[in-house]
Each structure stands twice: as C-alpha cells, then as structure tokens.
Write a structure and sequence with these properties.
The structure is a single chain. The chain is of the alpha/beta class. Helix content is about 40%, strand content about 20%. The strands form two sheets. A seven-stranded parallel β-sheet has the order 3-2-1-4-5-6-7, sandwiched between helices. A six-stranded parallel β-sheet has the order 10-9-8-11-12-13, with helices on both faces. Helix 6 crosses helix 10. It is globular, with a radius of gyration of 21 Å.
C-alpha cells in the first residue's frame, strides 16, 4: 500500500512532529510511505514559543518530508493536493490537533477524497482553548474524511457530536520510543547537575494554562511537601506569560524548591529528564490523551495525572501512579503517599509491564484494519 502523511515533520519541532516521525518509521516497515509537511506551519505572530524549528544540535529524526503547505496561503492548498496526487497514494493520513489547521487540511482533503481514502488521527476534536468558529471549522474538516482514529475514548465521544460516520476507532496513544533508553538515575541526575540527595518530581512539556502548572505550584506550597524536601523540575517552554507562574513561585516562597528548565528540551536530552525524575506529574485541567504519559511509559516512570479526559484510561490508579482530582490538595496528598510509602519501585515495575499495551505495531495495525473496512 502507498501511504501519504500530511502533518508536521522535521524541521519542525515538538511532540507532534516526534509522533509523526515514529508513525512514519513503523508504517514504512510494510508500506511505501511519503511525508508531506509545511512551508509555513504558523505565522510567527501566532506561534507562542521561541522557535518553530529544531536547532542544529537537536537529534530529531530527520524524515525527508516534502515541504509544500502554507497554512495561510490558499494557493498552496491546491499545489499540495497536486503534489500528493502525483504520489498516487492509496491512503492519506492527517495528524490533526487544533482548529487552526481545519481550513488548510480540510481543503486538501476535499480536493483528494475522490482520489484516495483519507483517515485522520485526531488528538482533539474540541480544542482545549476554545475560539469563535471552532465548531464550523471542525465540521468542515471532519466531513472530508473517510475514517478516524482517536487516542482516547473522550475524543471518540467528542467526534460523535460532529459526524455519524461509523468508520472510527479508538486506539491508545503508542509509547514514544524514539528518545533512547532509560539512563541510570544517578547518571541522569549528574548529567543535569542536580543534587543526588534530593527528591525530584517533574512537570514536562509546553506550559499552557490548561495544563495546570499553577495547581502543582500550589501543591508545592503544602507544608507536608516542604518538609519532605521535594524539588519540582519544570522542564519545557512557556507558551504564555511566565510572570503568572513566577508570581506564584514568589508568593509561596518556592524559589529553593523549583528547578527551572524553561527552554525547549532537545530530543537527545529527554531521556535524562525522565530518568532523573521520581514521578512525572500532569496536573491538567483539561486533556484528551497526552504524549507525556507515553514518554513516561517508555522510561518506566511513575505518573500522577488528574482525572480529566482520557488520562485515567492510560494510567491505572495505584498501579503505575495516581489519578487524582483537579486540585492542589489531591495532588499534594498523592505525592506524600508516593514518598511516605516508597512506591517508586513498584510503580516503575508495573509501568514496564503496562507499557506493552501501547506498542507501535498495534497502532499501525489498527490503521490498516480501518482502511480495509473503509475499502470494503
């Protein structure tokens, strides 16, 4: 089968580009695959981070993707469709994560839906941060597809609001296995120049309000947490006003308990951050699925997640970590239990077993089965 993938690839950076690279590598084992990506992903004025591109030193998987689509230039919608048509794919896959891409992706799909089958992998259907016009744009994009893959039951339920298409399937988000092997904790701690005598928890990924870092900072102010001597590593670039979080750090006098790594974390450094942390904390206010949990599984790390979206589907409570209510007290209670009862070893062992549910070949087989169903 010939498969085209249109989404973000190298030289763009971030978790979605990393997901697409891993998907490409798995599909090319059994199919002829060609990647297509952007000439311009976001206008700089709309991009909240420091740079959309990888650095020269970032060891990203350099998929040879054709750079064809400018999201804000409708003329490229036609030229992109023509480039993909020249490849003559049997299947075109979109990786879709926010409404901003609905006009460009939807237009390309509209131009090609009579030439090949189209399946979209949906991170979200209803955005975390809602804007006027979201529903109409989402409906337009959804209507151009033959089938859908969601990576959480909650997104599958959201999708039902937009289409009665029966060709949709939930397949759990596969693990991120592209960042190398787990590093001995002491070696990881030394590499990051951390104190080996400290207890380290980590918030990882782009910082947005819906991810609840403020709740975690409030939990860090709990007197029990202070007495336990826990250090919070904040590893990831801030996509909004950092002053809001800095004011909380100052308000609760947390300066000595916070380790700030608020730049983009290169791919080759990720293994050190996850290997150094005792537990990965995701205090999200809203969520569907999360790539962070799947990186944590790859490195067999315990996790603490809030009971929102699809996170509880992925992290069995009291087995590989905690599923807690979305408030600082519940977060603090779980962290105290984690350290008081020395749960790191057992949770880590369970994570090494549980991660087998999330193999890439299971994910791609699900896509292949959906394609066969569509073509019957």
């Amino acid at each position: 089968m010939k498969i085209a993938i249109l989404s973000t690839f190298y030289p763009y950076r971030g978790g979605i580009a990393q997901f697409n690279a891993a998907l490409y590598r798995e599909l090319e084992k059994n199919h002829t695959v060609k990647a297509f990506t952007f000439t311009r992903q976001y206008p700089n004025i709309l991009f909240p981070g420091k740079s959309q591109m990888v650095t020269d030193t970032d060891e990203s998987d350099k998929i040879d993707a054709a750079r064809v689509l400018d999201t804000i230039n409708p003329f490229t919608y036609y030229s992109t469709a023509n480039k993909i048509k020249q490849f003559e794919p049997d299947l075109l896959i979109f990786k879709y994560w926010m409404t901003f891409f609905a006009p460009s992706f939807g237009s390309v799909a509209y131009l090609l839906k009579n030439k090949c089958k189209i399946i979209s992998i949906l991170d979200n259907v209803i955005p975390h941060e809602k804007r006027i016009g979201d529903r109409a744009l989402t409906k337009f994009f959804i209507n151009q597809n033959h089938g859908f893959v969601t990576m959480s039951e909650s997104v599958l339920n959201d999708l039902n609001q937009f289409t009665d298409n029966k060709n949709k399937v939930f397949i759990p988000h596969p693990i991120y296995n592209i960042f190398g092997n787990k590093v001995a904790k002491r070696d990881a701690v030394n590499h990051l120049k951390l104190n080996p005598d400290d207890k380290h928890i980590m918030f990882f990924g782009f910082i947005r309000r819906y991810k609840g870092l403020d709740l975690l900072l409030e939990a860090m102010a709990d007197e029990r947490i202070r007495q336990t001597g826990i250090k919070l590593i904040i590893a990831g670039e801030c996509y909004e006003d950092w002053n809001y979080y800095n004011d909380l750090i100052n308000k609760y006098n947390l300066q000595s308990n916070i380790i700030l790594k608020t730049d983009y974390i290169p791919s080759e450094e990720i293994k050190y951050y996850f290997s150094a942390a005792d537990i990965i904390v995701q205090p999200y206010r809203t969520a569907t699925q999360s790539g962070v949990t799947q990186i944590a599984y790859n490195f067999e790390r315990p996790m603490l997640v809030t009971n929102v979206g699809g996170l509880a589907e992925i992290v069995p409570d009291k087995k590989v970590g905690y599923v807690v209510d979305t408030n600082s007290n519940s977060i603090a209670d779980a962290l105290i239990d984690f350290y008081s009862n020395n749960r790191e070893h057992d949770f880590s062992v369970n994570a090494s077993i549980e991660k087998k549910r999330f193999e890439w070949d299971t994910f791609t087989k699900g896509i292949e089965d959906l394609y066969k169903k569509i073509t019957l």
